Amino acid sequence: LPLTQEADQVAEADLNFAKKYIENYYPDSTSTPVVRSKGSDDIPADKIRLMQERFGLKVTGRLDSNTLALMRKPRCGVPDVAE
Amino acid sequence: YSTFPGDPTWKKRKLTYSVLNYTPDMDRADVDVAIEGAWKVWSDVTPLTFTRVYGEPADIEISFAARSHGDYIPFDGPGGQLAHAFSPAFGGNAHFDEDESWVRDLTGVNLFLVAAHEFGHSLGLRHSRVWGALMFPTYQAMDPQNFRLHPDDIEGIQSLYGPPEGGEDGDDSSSGNPEAPTEAPSTDLCDPRLAFDAVCSLRGETMFFKDNFFWRKNPQRRDVEKDPISAFWPALSKGIDAAYEVKADDTVFLFKGHKYWATKGNIIQSGFPQNIHSLGLPRSVKSIDAAAHDSNSKKTYFFSGNSYWRYDEAQKSMEKGYPRKIAADFHQVGAKVDAAFLNHGHFYLFIGSEQYEFDSRTKRFIGIKKSNSWFGC
Q1: How far does the CA of residue B63 sit from the closest CA of chain A (Å)?
Q2: What local confidence, expressed as pLDDT, does residue B87 receive?
């Protein structure tokens, strides 16, 4: 059974939500527009790590259930990293 | 705490704000109270003042809006983003998501708590990593009546604007030395040289103030807790001159220079600080050295220099026949006292590391003890 993969599986809706969350609160720190290839579903692990570290979560760089739950908490809309 | 890139701040100290519209979720008066209270959180710990203006441009504009609202940072409907605010570099305006359920209590999203957070951004603070800090990015529901600004927030905002003027060492004429002592007060309660600035009761505990700290003695606990004054009263973070409690009103009065504050628990009451001369003290009195309240007679004693006054809390007026010389009525005591405390019919006058004990009714001298005898040293 693909146990390790199962632990990492994230519903598409959750993934989209998490991507939007990271874009909102952990935007790229460069002012140069970044062109991403269409269809890329990856959320940069370093940003997940940054968020987990900020919130005192276990730092895995993966979108686990605790990280998702915290993303869903109501919060301020000001980004967490430099423009 | 953290600040925005380049540490943008407001260059003036007197800021204005306007409320462009209201949420239909709350009474307008409740919105006004929440907004005003949120500004007070910051004005209490900085030299900044915030004045509301109507029908004219303001430094900081406050509005409620849903979804796209003209700043290219759309809100996201119920939940998620509650609000956002711009740093001083971008005007400081604060926007609140109208799709949230705004309330004055904790049945929805408390407007006061969110506004206080957003105004931190408007003044130049970014998100803090410290759990419990106001500037932590996620909403943390807490009783707004018992709200206390976290030391991390105080340190952050004072790194940008400094501490408040007047309440501490600004226009306080009692201090001839503009440089406040920076050395930490003695943490050794049993140091025989220990002296207190003020002593008072507070909801059954006894508070011993020294510089920017106080010790709390709870009769039900063996250990004595030590806290920074800023944890309870940020506006008085550098210390106080005198304090007394009127138990019947659940109110403690704190004195610093020519100002005094009324507080219930750690909540400074609106309308304070006031000038000590409003109590009926003469203009020649620049500050209070010590104060003590007698709950039996409902009289409060104020000590300043070599004199003392007696104030009738019921009549709200200073009694006739005062001031009197301290030495004339409290034999053994010299010209000046540092702190005073009235407890179980005994009057304690603190002078340096010693306290003089009297019968509060007859003023009969009982004896001298070390000031820290309260701690079983």
Answers
A1: 15
A2: 95
